[in-house]
Amino acid sequence: MMPPKGNLARSEAMAELNVLQHQILTAKQVGEWLKQAEQETLDDIEQANLREMRRHYNNAVLVPEALVEAKSLAGARCEHAWRQQRIANDWHGFAENLREVVKLSREEAAIRAQAAGISHYDALLNLYEPGTNSADLDRIFGDLKQWLPTLLQKVIAKQEMKPA
């Protein structure tokens, strides 16, 4: 674990690395390389890799460098503060730190949603589950809602019957 007084320097270093990574990924030349690669004859695995590279590139170019840096700094600040606030049971202090992280995430969601013509939630969901949207999740959780409560009641009833 990072010493408490080292957190600011570490947060700034991580933010700088995130910005550099973003700059490399979003360089114009990367887009040109991807276009060239898309003209090549590729096997299935190479096509899948290229598709993922394109997805990462397209996702990255949407987000301004300043937002990448701000999210990195806010996330590090929030995570470090959480370590102390959790011990002190300081939920109000944590909420203040988390508020900035949520604000920046909403900003990113708005950018992504506008570019894709989808909801903010679907725009962020697409980062982690490409091709999945909130309607898919509603269907999945709707199915679970039908049978899971009954199963949980049965499991709890069986657990109560067995001695501890």
Q: What secondary-structure arrangement, pairings included, does this model have?
A:
Blueprint: H1 7-25, H2 28-38, H3 44-62, H4 65-87, H5 91-116, H6 120-128, H7 134-161
Helix pairs in contact: 1-4, 2-3, 4-5, 5-6
Task: Report on the architecture of this protein.
The protein is extended. It has 2 domains: 4-132, no CATH class; 134-164. It is built from 7 helices and no strands. The chain is mainly α and 164 residues long. The two termini are 38 Å apart.
Q: What is the CA-based Rg, rounded?
A: 22 Å
Q: Please count the beta strands (DSSP E, at least 2 residues each).
A: 0
Which structural class matches the secondary elements?
Answer: mainly alpha
Total helical elements = 7
Average pLDDT metric: 94
Largest sheet entry: none
Name its key features.
mainly alpha, 82% helix, 164 residues, 0% strand, hydrolase, single chain, metallocarboxypeptidase activity, 2 domains, extended, Peptidase_M32_Taq
In a nutshell, what does this entry contain?
By secondary structure, the chain is mostly helical. The chain has seven helices and no strands.
